[in-house]
Amino acid sequence: MNIGVIGLGYVGLVTAVCLATQGHRVIGVDVAQATIDQLQNGKPPIYETGLAELLRQAQSGSVIRFTTDIAHAIKESTVLFVTVETSSLPDGSPDLSQVWEICDQLAIYGQAGQLVIIKSTVPVGTTDAFAERLSNNHHIQFLDVVHNPDFLQQGRAVDDFLSPDRIVVGYENESTIPLINELYHFNQTPIQFCRRTSAELINYAANAFLAMKISYINMFSQLCETFGADVADIAQSIGNDPHIAPHFLKAGIGYGGSCIAKDIHTLIQTARAEGVPLPLLEAADRVNAWQMTRFVERIEQRLDTLADKRIALFGLSCKPGTDDIREAPSLRFTEIALAKGARIVAHDPLVKAFPYPQVELFSDPYTCMQGADAIVILTDWPDFRAINWKRMCELPNEPLLFDGCNLFSIQEIKMLAGSCPLEYHSIGRPCVKTFESEKQVR
Ligand code: NAD
Fold first, then answer.
1. Would you place residue 92 in the very low, low, confident or very high pLDDT band (cuts 50, 70, 90)?
2. CA 426 to CA 410: how far, in whole Å?
3. Domains and CATH numbers, the chain
């Protein structure tokens, strides 16, 4: 099948490369010349586990090409994916300008019988409006405009695309169904066909539910800190209930990223515009914001002040396994801590640029720790487990470790604290503290 993918970011590039390795011929298009140059040289401009290898495979088989020429890409394709960004405006409403731009390009260059698949996350009603705008501006009939929400998680997007737990397609025209089955022939996952508006809402409902789960356990983390309980015990027990399930029950500094955080804001805003209140989601979002504020305040209290304190951040990306920092917790932490006068340095395995020029980035974790008044973990990168944390104990200051992701178990920290003086704070769990003189673990 000849497939065009318009917008080669985290979703589009994974879609393009994976489809090219599954028997389709793909042409990927992006407005960014630098992106196309890099891809033509075999280098993905973003990091996703396994993506570079699959790109190499597709390029050596000549089943994928990249261009900035959208007219050419549209004319060459039977199926066209729309995978451009739908970011939030400052008031939380979605910015659909990139989606409408593509719609207008399709109206100019599209051909009869083509299938348009919107993979970008769009507010309910957008796919219908897209189809209507296309038919108003175009004299030839497209096969259909469908919404096929993307559930991939950054950091494991390739696996999620090739072996998804579900595929949802909101469609209008029955003739679309065989084409969609052929498109996704490479996996056994049943495809749920539904109304376009349902597909759009499914996307938001999924992310909003995960946001609620995260905020639910974070709400309990506050209670645990008050009563001296351990939130990990609570998460383990309720997660063993199959009605609840263990995923997204890890307490931490709250959700971020370009999906959950952005989507919940868009959903609240679009529902509010229609006069439909979503009190559960509004509460989840308030808990999320409060969780980070509380975390920074705990560090401030422990250090008496953040003014002129050197804070070493470990983890800037919104999740492990990606270099994406859009709406990452590290941005909010930095904003609050800088406003309180902190000096911030940071280390991340993949992120090499950060929008705050005051923040010095170190590729070496041990250099980053030097002179820190507090070390703060903001992303649960598995790489951080390989760091020799005992070296933290050689620092001149008494080492203070604030783990915003509960990366370590209390047991692991107690073992570390047995061999060096350490004070460890995490979310919803007791503080572990070794006193140099007594070598005592509380
Ligand atoms: P992104 O910003 O990484 O990628 C968008 C790409 O589109 C960029 O490379 C940009 O240069 C390109 N682009 C912009 N205008 C264009 C145009 N006119 N023609 C061609 N290319 C153009 O975005 P993303 O993270 O891949 O997200 C895309 C959509 O998928 C969003 O709606 C997002 O909400 C949704 N989504 C994202 C994820 C995720 O994990 N990132 C998961 C599920 C859904």
1. confident
2. 9
3. 2-194 (3.40.50.720), 257-441 (3.40.50.720)
